[in-house]
Amino acid sequence: MSAILAAAAIALSGAAVAAFVPVRGATRAAFALLFGLGIWSASYAAVLFIAGNTPRTILLKDAVVAAAGAALLIARRGRACAVFNDAQVVESAPGWPRGAAIAAAVIATAFFVEHTFRNPDGGWDAWAIWNLRARFLARSGEDFRAAFSPDLLFWAHQDYPLLVPGIVAQAFLLWGKQPLWIPALVSYALAALCVAVLAGAAAELRRPPWGGLAALALLATPCFVGFAANQQSDVPVAALMLAASALTAFGIESRQRSCFAVAGISASLAAWTKNEGGVYLVCFALGLAAIRWAPARERFRSLVAFACGAAPVVALLIYFKFAIAHVNDLVSEPSAGRLFDVSRWGELGLALARRAIFFQSWGVWLVAEVVVLALVVPRLPPRPAARTLGVALVLAFAATLPIYVLQPHPLLWFFRASIDRVLIQLWPSILLATALAIVPRGADVQEAGGRPSLGELTDAIGASPSPQASANDR
Amino acid sequence: MPGSARVYARSFVPLRTAASAVAVLAAVGIAREAYFHLVSEPIWELRSAMRAPRAEERYRAVRAALPRSGRVGYLSDEPVTSRPGAPAPDEWGTWLYQEAQYALAPVVLVVGDTSTPVVLANLKRADRLEAIAREHRLRIVRRFEDGAVALLNR
Lengths: 474, 154
Hints:
The structure holds 2 protein chains of 2 kinds.
Chain A: H1 2-18, H2 25-51, H3 55-75, H4 96-118, H5 124-140, H6 163-175, H7 181-205, H8 208-219, H9 222-229, H10 234-254, H11 257-271, H12 275-290, H13 296-324, H14 336-339, H15 342-356, H16 359-362, H17 365-376, H18 384-406, H19 411-438, H20 454-460
Helix pairs in contact in A: 1-2, 1-3, 2-3, 2-6, 2-7, 4-8, 4-9, 5-6, 7-8, 7-10, 7-19, 8-19, 10-11, 10-12, 10-18, 10-19, 11-12, 11-13, 12-13, 12-18, 15-19, 18-19
Chain B: H1 15-40, H2 46-51, H3 60-65, E1 70-75, H4 92-104, E2 107-111, E3 119-122, H5 129-135, E4 139-144, E5 149-153
Parallel strand pairs in B: 1-2, 1-3
Antiparallel strand pairs in B: 3-5, 4-5
């Protein structure tokens, strides 16, 4: 009974939110499952803090979430969201990117299984933080606040938000035990959803082959599978930030304001996954406001929609930070001296430059990305969605840099332990933004040597009053 | 967004060009992944790695002897990093603590606290148990793992 209710809560709440996403089929299903899992976990935490950790409260919570999702779906029946890419395109493009992405997914799954068999508890952070917290929540019953006890060493990071532990703990409770395969399966599912959302969003926002290429790029990034198999929360943050990025792009290119509200929900769920997600949420709001992708009034309304979507989970996060969590180790001993220490910035800059060519984690993807950003993108017409995402992502990455300088751990040790995880959180969104930057929307762009079409030229010289206006703006 | 008067020589990157670049980069990336998962982590040793005892096994017996929840004092012969910015010389002590905490949750292990009814000693070297107990004026109640893990009290 409780398993059925939990499944209904995930499916219906996710479907209700995904009903506002202007895509169809498997892509919508991927968005729905991602949002459903996020809402299932966030609502668990809310109930935990309000009503305690009892089977009855959790059961009731699932019933309410399922009913609310069903009610929203019924209320929206007959008012389907306009599909973003409804053109019946006769593809002349090659089909191999899709095949290659599927093959890469099979290989990545094999590597995931190998690494999981070898390290069934996940990586250090997984068992020392995320799965530890899930065990606390699943085993402690009413005494769940022990999971955030200040008596635990700071390595348990009691201040970290609970999206992934919330999913794993509820699955533990449903299963009645804490088998090792549950966190591994959750990690795999969230990583697979990340790939599916990237492929689907790139295909919808551009054309299907770009979806295959984007998915292939992510799956062939060496550290992606490793981080997923390590069961850490970085890939889930990446998936949710990617969904927020895709919805921001859908919103900008289709002018459907509901997309921004769902982007806000997604970014807030990322903030409920890791502390960095909160920083990224603010940066996305700044990106939406800073880039002139629409008249100021429309941008303001979109920003309000984004904030409204984010508000419930942000409220949960604020409550958690003030009432439950304890101080973060990175800001526990703040020092202006460290922030203004030029040698620390120099050390960080050097480490960053070296990381760009760190083959073990990134192959040559980071180098290629830098080349594209430096040499290719500036020669192409600016595209509003890509610019907005680009600014948001640059801000998001830049915002992490002062933290490296400020935090009290030895700088290089901390950098080496975390920089790849910061980058992988943003990497799927970077891939999507890159695809949006190098290709315009629409199916008219075939293999013409990259010369501009008439529509592109009018966009570039500002002759089009609404370059993205289309049949989708219904 | 209209606004720029600049006319661009190229409008987009052709799919074929992008696909070729991604194919090369992906081949390099997957080769690197394969090297890690098949060679760095030797695939021929996977079966023996799977049969190796998990670190958590060390605490299976002591878990049954501890209270189901609450605070339990924690002592070790290895220094633990308990404050950011002041790392222990190596990660042994911190790793031992975290493994024990992971295995014994929802019991909260409190480093250095000997005032709790039961104190857990978790040692790298079992032969140091008596000395640790003497140093903190505790007596040894039960030994596990040949004395590397033990319960102490006043």
